[in-house]
Specification:
By secondary structure, this protein is α/β, with parallel strands linked by helices. The chain folds into 2 domains: 140 residues, 3-Layer(aba) Sandwich (Rossmann fold); 133 residues, Aspartate/ornithine carbamoyltransferase (Rossmann fold, 3-Layer(aba) Sandwich). The protein is 40% helix and 14% strand. It contains 11 helices and 9 strands. The chain has a 5-stranded parallel β-sheet. A 4-stranded parallel β-sheet has the order 2-1-3-4, with helices on both faces. Helix 6 links the parallel strand 5 and strand 6. Helix 1 packs across helix 10, helix 3 runs parallel beside helix 4 and helix 5 crosses helix 10. The radius of gyration is 20 Å and the shape is globular. The structure holds phosphoric acid mono(formamide)ester (CP). Phosphoric acid mono(formamide)ester binds next to helix 2.
């Protein structure tokens, strides 16, 4: 997928053609707010020649009590060819895939997974560091509620990186036994020698009252700024999936400074989403052929 994304990126930047998935209509189902994910999927679809149709839950028949299952079935019989879906519930995209009978791309489900975000982050790290294997990656902050943390931890550990989860006990999962990362409750030791620091947003909308009493208290102990970055390696890459709570997870000087890869994360998300859409619309034979022959386009 990263190879396909790299190829698409070069083609778009150099003005060379990319494959066209004409006559395909992609439904954009965002049951939760989004800026980056929605726009980059729209842009990716546009580059690949697909049409998109937006489904707005707030003005749909779900307001009259229609279930998610019936909504997905309706979109299937309306002959949409694929769906991009964000939902506040973990597992919602898997449920949609069961009833839609076509490609459903998960654009973030609850605190479960955000796979295309992790792909864009991996592409950004690859471009900046040249490799993923052997890197020490510190994922800092609200891991408990973060789909970005989970998808990155699975992807990066599979690619041979050492993943650390850094944050207060209230914001790290009570057991990390089922996750591929080691917990650190102290920022200095969690960041020691880190090649990549990935900050997470404090996801207040998913927190139970009392999980975090005071964001300023969090900032005092876990904010990434020029002082705390000294715990990490000298060429550390600073990342954040956005949206940022500026002055809480990250200070302005680091967010907008030379070590920040945040702009590259946003741009690369277009190309990995092109790769995801392209891959999802290939039939299984074509997938096997591109895998074997490394023919990307
Ligand atoms: N990173 C991310 O998912 O951002 P949005 O919520 O703006 O899509």
């Amino acid at each position: 997928m990263l190879e396909i994304a790299t190829d698409f990126k070069a083609r778009i930047i150099e003005g060379r053609p990319v494959p066209e998935l004409k006559k395909q209509v992609l439904g954009m189902l965002f049951f939760e707010d989004s800026t980056r994910t929605r726009i980059s999927f729209e842009q990716a679809a546009h580059y690949l020649g697909l049409k998109t149709t937006n489904f707005a839950p707030s003005s749909s028949s779900m307001n009259k009590g229609e279930t998610l299952k019936d909504t997905i079935l309706t979109l299937r019989y309306d002959r949409l060819n694929g769906l991009v879906m964000r939902h506040r519930r973990s597992g919602a995209a898997a449920l949609a895939a069961k009833f839609f009978e076509g490609p459903v791309i998960n654009a973030g489900d609850g605190s479960h997974e955000h796979p295309a975000q992790a792909l864009g982050d991996a592409l950004t790290i690859l471009e900046k560091k040249g490799h993923l294997s052997g890197l020490k990656v510190a994922i800092v902050g609200d891991v408990e509620h973060s789909r970005v943390a989970r998808s990155n931890a699975w992807l990066l550990s599979k690619a041979g990186a050492e993943v650390r989860f850094v944050g207060p006990r209230t914001l790290l999962p009570s057991s990390t036994a089922n996750l591929p990362g080691v917990p650190y409750y102290d920022l200095a030791s969690g960041l020691e020698g880190a090649d990549v620091v990935m900050c997470l947003r404090l996801q207040k909308e998913r927190m139970l009252e009392g999980d975090l009493c005071n964001p300023n208290e969090y900032a005092k102990q876990y904010q990434i700024n020029r002082t705390t970055l000294k715990y990490a390696g000298p060429d550390v890459l600073v990342m954040h999936p956005g949206p940022i709570n500026r002055g809480i997870e990250l200070d302005d000087l680091v967010a907008d400074g030379p070590l920040s890869a945040i702009a590259a994360q946003v741009e690369n998300s277009i190309f990995v989403r092109m790769a995801a859409i392209y891959w999802a619309f290939q039939d299984s034979k074509a997938k096997e052929k591109s895998k074997k022959e490394k023919i990307l386009v």
